[in-house]
Amino acid sequence: MTRTFVILPYxxxxxxxxxxxxxxxxxxxxxYLIISNQExxxxxxxxRYPPRHTAEVSAGAGKLPxxxxxxxxxxxxxxxxxxxxxxxxxxxxxxxxxxPVRSTEFPILQPEPEDxxxxxxxxxxxIKDVCEFEESPDFKQSNMYYIPDIRATWLPLFGASxxxxxxxxxxxxxxxxxxxxxxxxxxxxxxxxxxxxxxxAKKKETGKKTRKFMKEPDDSLRFTIIRHPLTxxxxxxxxxxxxxGELSALKDQWVRPSIILxxxxxxxxxxxxxxxxxxxxxxxxxxxxxxxSPDNPLLSPPTFPEFVRFxxxxxxxxxxxxxxxxxxxxxxxxxxxxxxxxxIVKMENMKSEIPVLLEQLHLTxxxxxxxxxxxxxxxxxxxxxxxxxxxxxxxxxxxxxxYSYFGYKPVFVD
Length: 414
Hints:
The protein is of the alpha/beta class. The protein has helices at residues 10-36, 38-45, 72-76, 116-133, 162-173, 229-242, 244-249, 251-263, 270-286, 304-317, 330-333, 336-339, 350-360, 367-370, 380-384, 389-398, 400-406, and strands at residues 56-57, 101-102, 137-138, 145-147, 152-154, 197-203, 209-214, 221-226, 343-346, 411-412.
């Protein structure tokens, strides 16, 4: 048997080697792009319903900015740095036990200091105490965006002024570079280059590990805006009541399952159930307005009691659909015991607190972006009054930890 060898001319051999090198470099570059953006890809395409029941307990304290900053709050924050002492006696009574609001009694906030800086400081102190009592639960959430120009890290809480901040950052760092928007849709993915990623934690002199993030310097000021969890829930519920596009967009997340859970008749046969669900799908997909169908009174947007019942039932079953990012408990979504947020602004106090935050971020010329939001408290009594006593208790229990961490009050309407 004879073997045939192909001998390339010298020039062809050189070109062949160059081609192989280019292919290798291209593959290497593609691998780098995938690795560098894996956190963003994971969040936008996979992690829409982050698991809640698999949370682990960690004693990691996290980090706060160092004292080298000249800004007022960057110095104050150092005073409330969480320090773990092994011999410290654990509290025997849960801190910050809140009293519920009954009837339409307001305010829905626990009393806080008049001075804004004292208010920020006290919130961090309360969070520290509750985290200590709860053994610092870790929900492994890191939805954080470091903006180099202002040396700050933003933690968006959906339904709490996040749209205003998202729009502002996109206008400043995306549109300003000549990129064109698609319609009026401001997608958070446009800020993916600022999304922080984990890196291996390092031990400090105390022997404790602290959470670190790639590209976030030690002097970054972490901030977020929060609101009462029930007003945040109501704000999200209103969307499909007013807009057919939202009705369709939220169909599988909670609109369809809420309606089916609330309106399925136990006496129906399997054929009748299938017929109703088929008509429901057609109505959601094709209806031009989110109003009730004139042909079938069962075809209409979900009611608030149906929405709440869907959440609490899913929570009881450990169904991750209960923990949608738009209403998941604040303390879990922000991973409050691990991410050590420096400034927490409450939407209920926007007029007094936003100017102070903007001063720390050196953005005092942009107040108009952020002071247009309402806290929604005026609707709270009406919506909670539509719930049965049992459902009021169940949804307040769902947000029990938020009340402890952030000084909000449960709401019951008689």
